[in-house]
Each structure stands twice: as C-alpha cells, then as structure tokens.
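Lab notebook: predicted structure, single chain.

Context: the supervisor wants predicted structures on file for every construct in the current expression panel, including those that have not yet been purified. This is the next one on the list. No modifications to the sequence; it matches the entry in the shared construct table.
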Amino acid sequence: MDSNFYKMSKSYYHEAFGHYRKCWAIEPNGYLWERGPIQNLPFEFRVLEFPPFGSRNMWTYATCCMSDLSCANPIELHIFSRNKDEGLIELLTAITYYHRNTASLDLNHTVNFGKPWKNGSKCEHGLISLPYLDGRGLENLQLLNTTVKFYWLIPITKGEVDYTKRYGVESLEKMFEGPSFNYLDEVRRSIV
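Prediction complete. Output recorded below exactly as produced.
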C-alpha cells in the first residue's frame, strides 16, 4: 500500500473519530466485525459504540472510515438503539461493504438490510437522512478540500420505502415529525 495513502487514511480515521467525540462528548468503544469479506473494507474501518450519556438515553452505533478522501462524496452513518446491540455492528459493516464495493450511498438513499433491524421488527430497510437530532455540528466535517457528511440511518419498513418512491423522502420525513413515530421502537408499525 502507498505510504501517502496510508497516512491520508490514518488521518481520515483520526479526524472522523475526533469529530464524533467532539459532537457527543463521550469516549466510544471501537469494533471490527470479523466475519465475512472484511479484507474488502478499509484497514482502519471500525464501528464505534457510544453508550447512553447525559439526557441521551440510547446507544449510538457509528461508522468510522466507511468512506475516505478518495470517495467522490464521503459519508459516515450512525444508527440509534434503545439497547446495546452487537447486531448493529454487523449491520453497519454490511452497509459499509455495500457502499465500498457495490454502489455508493448518499443522502436520501434507502438500504435493504436483508433482515429485520431487530428481532420482531418490520423495519428491514434504512433511510439515509440528515442528522436531525444533532444538527450541522455533526453533519459536516471539513477535511482538506472535502466535506465529509455524517448522516443518520433511520430503520424503516418496506411500505415506507415504497412511499418514498411514490411521494418523495421529504413527505415521509414530515410524517416522522408526528407523535406516532418512535425511531427507537423496534416493533413500531409502518406510518404509511
């Protein structure tokens, strides 16, 4: 591997890791899912696990090095959980593999998880959305001449995916603002 590329990648990892820590003000645990074709992922790739803290009563799982500065539109994703959940490390690893080896993902894309988000859940897909809970402080990280985007992966149902195809993502996100939507409820019903 080119030593300059390694230095750039290492810098990307440290910058992305530091960005999360600055925004969430807590030290995460880093995990590497060691099953599957991990040799096709960046050497530095990890899923970071942030425990609940302060008034934030949920676990947060976030990619670190899902992208790098050679990507046209570098992104990182995070997902929330009511409970500690090793399955989300596997899920984010699989999505990173897809992003790096099959098709680049970006804002407003949907992803098929291939299985329920949690046991008993009807949410088998994810919507890549703006980080509404954390705002622009998390969303943007400027590195060299590139802006890395940090997006929220919201678990959604097949019906909600179909709704976005028909009426657009903004229409679905407006429905998410209603009182019946709970993004932490793994057994929630579809809102459409």
